[in-house]
Amino acid sequence: MKQHDLPPSGAPRERRIAGHAQDDHIIDTYKLRKKLPDATRCPSCGAIYHEGRWQWPHAGLAPPTHDELCTACHRVHDKYPAGILTMKGAVVRSHRADVLGLARNAEQAEKSEHCQNRIMAIEEPADDEVVITTTDIHLPRRIGEAMQRAFHGDLRMHYDEENYFVRVEWREG
């Protein structure tokens, strides 16, 4: 998959990840190259950078002293998703509200623990199709697996070999 060969403008960030579905050779152009000062606040979503990661504000955090866009808001601003989930079939047409609710519920569950994992956009290019873009590679998989549990069907995932990107497709079986 070569769809995202060039890094987006204004995003000279790099990430090397070990473990999970991705490997050390995958680069996320949105990962910070250096740590930000503690108590940096994202002016767009209100997330706070604390102890080396972005998190939602909670009791015990120092008041914000710096402002900088978080990685998720930066991706949203640039319209440069890390994941794309496409869902197709008669189930999407006949149960659209359930499908969209399932996606939003999966996002809420993921976002409550990982504030950088969000839905960027939901598009409906056809009456039997929904396309969801996300700020991370885990949320499309999570939504796709929830679709498979709820409606069965065929779930396919493709992790880009060179970039921090996933394409997930769910089709009615």
Provide structural commentary.
By secondary structure, the protein is of the alpha+beta class. It has a domain at 83-171. It contains four helices and nine strands; from the N terminus they run E-E-E-E-H-E-H-H-E-E-H-E-E. It has helices at residues 71-78, 90-94, 96-113, 138-151, and strands at residues 40-41, 48-50, 53-55, 66-67, 83-88, 119-126, 129-134, 154-159, 166-171. The protein has a five-stranded mixed β-sheet with strand order 6-7-5-9-8. A four-stranded mixed β-sheet has the order 3-2-1-4, with no helix packed on it. Strand 8 (154-159) and strand 9 form a beta hairpin. Helix 3 (96-113) packs across helix 4 (138-151).
Question: Per DSSP, what share of the residues sits in E-state strands of 2 or more residues?
Answer: 15-25%
How many separate helices?
A: 4
Query: How far apart lie the N and C ends?
Result: 25 Å
Q: Structural class of the helix and strand makeup?
A: alpha+beta
**Using DSSP, what is the number of strands?**
9
Query: What is the rounded Rg?
Result: 17 Å
Helix content: 25-40%
Largest sheet: 5 strands, mixed
Shape: elongated
Report the uncertain regions.
Answer: 1-23
Mean pLDDT: 86
Q: What is the strand arrangement across the widest sheet?
A: 6-7-5-9-8
Would you list the SSEs in sequence order as H and E? EEEEHEHHEEHEE
